[in-house]
Amino acid sequence: MNRARIERELARLIAGGQAVELIEGGSRPLILYRTLPTSGAPLNLPDATDVVVPVPEGYPASMIDLAGLPVGSPLLARVKGGQNNQGIVRVADRDFQLASYHPHNGGGGPPWDQARHGFHTYIDHVLAWLDRLS
Amino acid sequence: MLANAVVQATSARRMVLRFAQPELSALRDLVFRRHPRDEWATLAWFGWRELAPATTGADAALMLTYAAIESPKSGDLDDAVSHVAIDEPYSLRMALAAEHNALAPGVIHSHPQDVPPIASVIDDDMDAYYSRYFSDFAPGRPYVSLIFTIIDGAFACSGRVWWRGAWHYVTETLGETQSLQTWVGWRPPPRLPPDLRAAPTASTARLAAAFGDEAALRLKGATVAVIGAGGTGSAAIEVLARAGVGRLVLADPDRLDESNLERVHGSTAEMLHQPKVVLAKRHVADIAPNCVVDAIIGALPQDDVVDAISAAHFILCCTDSHSSRLAVSDIAVRYLVPALDCGVTMEGKGGTVRGQIVQLVRLFPHDPCALCREMTIPWRVAQELMSEEEKSRRRAAARQAQARGESGNMYWHDEPQLNTVGYLTTTAGAMAAGYAIGLITGRFAPPFSRLQMNLVAPLLDSTDVDVEPRADCTCRRVRGHADQALADAYVWPPSHWSPPRRA
């Protein structure tokens, strides 16, 4: 895992006030974006949530893909791909369910460009995902 | 400065210094500004990588890459004296800059024409001073001191490196296309190394007749890395070995299967399921027993493989792996190793072959990189690097999506390809090896940026597809930065890969 690159990307988010961290020790490294806003309040859904995103093997050559919400989150039924379970990952005693969300792989975002994209830009796709609840 | 400082170096460690073009030419122009009578200098930055002992067979070696110049401004050097006198503001500017980058500082200065590149007492004082001075601002980094001169008409270089509390002579200098004489330990290079004094052997006599004895000697002293020992790579390996290349570094993680027998040079049915590099090494031993082969069962960018190839004169990328192609391009940019990517593809369907394509792409340090050229497909790279468990899960998800009447491409892409055949891979590999020979001997270079030709089109339908480097590409920022730009590495070895091992 290219820790130096990931830490550089996270540092940009942290400098802008976003709580985010690299989680290791589980079956795969993950990025945990904390307390991201959602558009759920009018729907009596959480207005903020934590989101995990797996660090792909070979990153940054491999595109960032998927996004996960806490197991049991009512948002899972409302986000794109949320009902298509792509696996469960554990972060600090909490389980997250990965949703079928693929912004860089035909899912609505630009094709993966490792010279431009990273976890510091993927957050934009995650925010859009949390904003466009069905 | 210190008075009469003693700077005693050794050549016990291999210290390889690498330059790319056009930086080397620009550097020459600058430091020879007052040539032929007086000296001149500049401060400069270097990337570096420590090479594991397994690669060198001795103590850990250091590879240094010329990354950038910190040009002197008016008044930074005293031009009233004939030797080099660097004013303190220039040194301080460099030292403060060192706090904002990770590169190694250094000094490059010229000697007057035909004055050998041997450190003077003044040079000793300067190096003793700067090695301590920069260590305060940039602890733990090497300090590099080089002397350039023109002697008997030849461009010569000597150098020493302060590293981990000791001085080391630069033992090799590699110019991308320009040859430099390396004076090791202030001694001129032997006109012909003892083991090279013999006339070309009968097997290399034809090549020597075509390009000259010196060309044969250069080949004998060269290291070529070949990534991939399949159809294309095995053809290149065979041509290079028969041409008299002295050392080959071969890397491939795969084993020979039955379908490879049609195109892998040196393969026989008895060798099925053996690592491809094992049979390549055996084949080279049969045809060129004096060729040293470092065969690694592994893939780029695993550390041992990078160590082994980063001090090579040239890399041939002979694999259809997109991630390896990215890694080779990255190595060309960050470690300044010129490379040539070669590949083949067949186009057609239903038994009709419309295209038999050979493609050679020049990946020199200054060329547009694989990302600029869009030589790789993101989903394909990702699929190559996934674990088997992830591949299985994604294939299953794709099948489920298709069963629902949806596209499964977001989970898994299947893109059937026509199998390539031996005459095509042999053509590509042999051509690539030929250009390696041309570059090493200094006799010719690839006259293209990205050559494509179709063996079944009129006049082969040859095209040279050139592109401009992308202004925002990583390659524009990290050229020559070596391990100091690890955060910008194009690809990282997946955690599930087996560690590389030597065959």
Q: Note the total helix count of chain B.
A: 13
In total, how many beta strands of chain B?
19
How would you characterize the largest beta sheet of chain B? 10 strands, mixed
Task: Characterize the overall form of chain A.
Answer: globular
Radius of gyration of chain B: 24 Å
Number of strands of chain A: 6
Secondary structure class of chain B reads: alpha/beta
- If strands are numbered along the chain, what order do they take across the biggest sheet of chain A? 1-2-3
Distance N to C terminus of chain B: 51 Å
Order of helices and strands of chain A: HEEEEEEH
Question: Which residues of chain A sit in consecutive blocks of at least 5 with pLDDT less than 50?
Answer: none
Main sheet of chain A? 3 strands, antiparallel
* Low-pLDDT runs of chain B: none
The backbone outline of chain B, from C-alpha atoms, is globular
Question: What is the mean predicted local confidence, pLDDT of chain A?
Answer: 96
Question: How big is the Rg of chain A?
Answer: 14 Å
- Share of residues in strands of chain A: 15-25%
Mean pLDDT of chain B: 91
Could you give the distance between the termini of chain A? 35 Å
In terms of DSSP E residues, the strand content of chain B is: 15-25%
Helix content of chain B: 25-40%
